[in-house]
Amino acid sequence: MPVNERAREEHMMLKQRSRSTTSEAVSQLSRRGLIARLAAAGLSAPAIAAVLRAPAAAQEATPAPNEILESLGKNPQLIQHGTTTFETPVDLMDQFLTPNEAFFIRSNGPVSIDIDPAAWRLSVSGLVETELELTLADLQAMPAHTLTAFLECSGNSRSRFAADGEQAEGTQWGNGAIGNVEWTGVMLRDVLDEAGVQEGVVDVVSTGGDFPEMQRGLPLDHALDPGVMLVWEMNGEALPQPNGGPVRLLVPGWGGIASTKWIAGLELIDRPFDGSFNTESYVFIDPNGAVLRPVREIPAKSVITSPVPDASVTAGEHMISGFAWSGYAGIDRVEVSIDGGDWQAATITEEAGPASWVRFEFPWEAAAGEHTLRSRATDQIALQQPDEVPFNAKGYLMNAIYEVPVT
Asked: Nearest Cα to 47, choosing from 26, 72, 27?
């Protein structure tokens, strides 16, 4: 099949699959609790009713009701995939730093909207010399650091498995469950140093404030990495509650599940954590259902954001642009291919360290007619974005080269 025809067919399949939504989080909520949270956000009765109807009605992945997103401080153009899942559309992915109001939302439980920053507490327990209970003011009294880092949902681009012929389970994300942000907070290792880490610690278990079962284990050696932080600011503003405020864990380069939102506790244990979010959810499984490993680093990936898919492009000069990132190392280079032709070097025009994505540009002299644009990222340890990604049932870490059809 010619590359243009294949790209257009896959793009249409993605658009169809995006209409099949999930409500993973809602099944774990009580109806009464969700009503209380939405009412606390100031939603009207009709808006609350619309949210409650969404799971049963298998709502389409269309822009969410303005009232819901505005109550969460979000751009009304975000795409709704479920009661607590909102995607950044490609036409809002055009800035090096993703605006807070355009940043995607993904929650395994209710979006916590009722945490008072003054009342928030973080417990540090387990194999420590001194157990701690810290306030936001306590954290802010420690040395603060700012880091530019991307954060990507482990299931971002999952709908592309369906376009390749087999749908993976879970939210059928397009490419917009990612953003790049300036985060401000304290190094996790500074907090652990204050508590005093005992001998024999293997994992640091973080507990989210959305519900007690939201726990994820982080190996101690990685928890001590200087990039791993407890953050309270996002792009110079207080961390929005839909994105984990007042404080969340940030584990740069790893799937978003590692960066626990509304963090409430840290427990240091002497064994690998065997909770469900390390052993059942956010894991790779073999064809027989056996767990292989948990999701960790994000592989090298790139996405063209301009022109957008199906854009009308006139003959003449155009600038192809987009972003590239990797959780293993900084990006070394990005290349662009037109209509299946040779790969040509793009120019990296913005970067902010290995935890951040990079912006790339490629000048293109377009001929009249239909075209297919592709980009390919390679990171600094030579890991390269592949043509295809083997199917995995849960649809994690899809980083295959994405084709953008234009006319």
From this structure: 72
Helices of type H across 18-132: 31-40, 45-57, 66-71
Contact, 217 vs 278, CB < 8 A? yes
Same domain, 280 and 309: no
Question: How far apart are alpha carbons 75 and 93 in whole angstroms?
Answer: 12
80 and 229, same domain (yes or no): yes
Q: Which two tokens stand for residue 31?
A: 């109806």
Q: Answer yes or no: do 185 and 288 share one domain.
A: yes
What are the C-alpha distances in Å from 137 to residues 230, 242, 247?
13, 21, 11
Contacts of 165 (CB under 8 A, 6+ apart): none
**49-97 per-position pLDDT tens digit:** 444 444 333 334 544 457 788 888 999 999 999 877 999 999 999 999 9
Ranges of H-type helices in 143-224: 159-163, 188-195, 220-223
> What residue numbers bound the domain in which 369 lies?
301-406
Alpha helices in 18-94 (DSSP H): 31-40, 45-57, 66-71
Q: Residue 158: which CATH number?
A: 3.90.420.10
369 CB-near residues (< 8 Å, 6+ apart): 407
CB distance 79 to 176 below 8 Å: yes
DSSP 275-293: SHHHHTSSEEE-TTS-EEE
H helix runs in 224-300, sequence order? 276-279
Model pTM greater than 0.90?
Answer: no
**Coil, strand, or helix at residue 321?**
strand
One domain, residues 263 and 308: no
Environment class of residue 140 by beta-carbon count within 10 Å: exposed (0-12), middle (13-18) or buried (19+)? middle
Residues 6+ apart with CB under 8 A from 249: 188, 206, 228, 229, 230, 231, 258, 259, 260, 261, 263
